[in-house]
């Protein structure tokens, strides 16, 4: 079980790395917002795996909060884009 | 047995997340990237939360895991829709191999006005009905 948890953590770390490449390279701001959304989703998964690894179920509450923050950040960025603030891609 | 199911769920969930990241990196424009990330990442989180629910096997933890699953299932499409809409209006370019863009002839980017495609002179007329108040 420990090995499986380690493997899934490594895979998700790789996911974070690939997503970060898109955050850096992404040609426009919506692409970066999309990558940040995937970031928060991946971190929710990592926290779930860590809850299994440590045996502390309270980490799932933190996962709920992280998912909520990611959703609100996406909505806020989208509103900012549509209203049209100063943009510098 | 339950360890085997848990491990399979964890690995599959992590692999779906990796798939989402690969799609985000490889696909050509905003909408196709969104198509890759939202569905695959949501499925990955769902599988991992199922694994944690099976690991703890208490009522409170299972309820929290299912709360996360329902939350992800409800918010991921909304966030993707909002970002895609904002990206289209901001003017992010579509892939050169895009076959169909039905919004383009009906949307005026200067006035931010959307037509239904049915605005003809005939449709603009108003005919009085019997149920109208006098």
TrEMBL record, chain A:
Keyword Ubl conjugation: no
Record keywords, A-Z: Antiport, Cell membrane, Ion transport, Membrane, Transmembrane, Transmembrane helix, Transport
Top-level taxonomy: Bacteria, Pseudomonadati, Pseudomonadota, Gammaproteobacteria, Oceanospirillales
Record's protein name: Multicomponent Na+:H+ antiporter subunit F
Chief localization: membrane
Recorded GO MF terms: sodium:proton antiporter activity
Domain of life: Bacteria
Natural source organism: Vreelandella subterranea
Membrane-related topology note: Multi-pass membrane protein
One Pfam entry name: MrpF_PhaF
One GO location term (cellular component): plasma membrane
Transmembrane segments: 6-24, 36-53, 59-81
Cell location: Cell membrane
Family: Belongs to the CPA3 antiporters (TC 2.A.63) subunit F family.
InterPro entries according to UniProt: MrpF/PhaF-like (IPR007208)
From TrEMBL, chain B:
Transmembrane helix keyword on record: yes
Segments for region (Disordered): 114-134
Transmembrane segments annotated in the record for this chain: 6-28, 40-57, 63-83
GO molecular function, one term: sodium:proton antiporter activity
Keyword Membrane listed: yes
Keyword terms of this UniProt record: Membrane, Transmembrane, Transmembrane helix
Name listed for the protein in its UniProt record: Multisubunit potassium/proton antiporter, PhaG subunit
Organism whose genome encodes this protein: Vreelandella subterranea
């Amino acid at each position: 079980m420990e090995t499986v948890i380690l493997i899934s953590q490594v895979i998700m770390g790789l996911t974070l790395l690939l997503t970060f490449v898109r955050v850096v390279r992404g040609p426009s701001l919506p692409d970066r917002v999309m990558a940040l959304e995937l970031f928060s989703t991946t971190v929710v998964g990592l926290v779930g795996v860590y809850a299994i690894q440590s045996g502390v179920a309270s980490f799932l509450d933190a996962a709920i909060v992280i998912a909520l923050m990611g959703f609100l950040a996406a909505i806020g960025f989208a509103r900012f884009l549509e209203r049209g603030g100063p943009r510098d891609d | 047995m339950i360890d085997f199911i848990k491990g399979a769920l964890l690995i599959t969930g992590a692999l779906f997340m990796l798939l989402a990241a690969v799609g985000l990196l490889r696909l050509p424009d905003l909408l196709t990237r969104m198509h890759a990330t939202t569905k695959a990442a949501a499925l990955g989180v769902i599988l991992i939360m199922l694994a944690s629910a099976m690991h703890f096997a208490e009522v409170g933890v299972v309820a929290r895991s299912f709360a996360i699953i329902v939350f992800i299932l409800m918010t991921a499409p909304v966030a993707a829709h909002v970002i895609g809409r904002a990206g289209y209006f901001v003017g992010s370019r579509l892939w050169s191999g895009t076959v169909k863009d039905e919004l383009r002839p009906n949307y005026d980017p200067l006035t931010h006005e959307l037509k239904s495609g049915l605005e003809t002179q005939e449709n603009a007329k108003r005919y009085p009905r019997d149920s109208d108040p006098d």
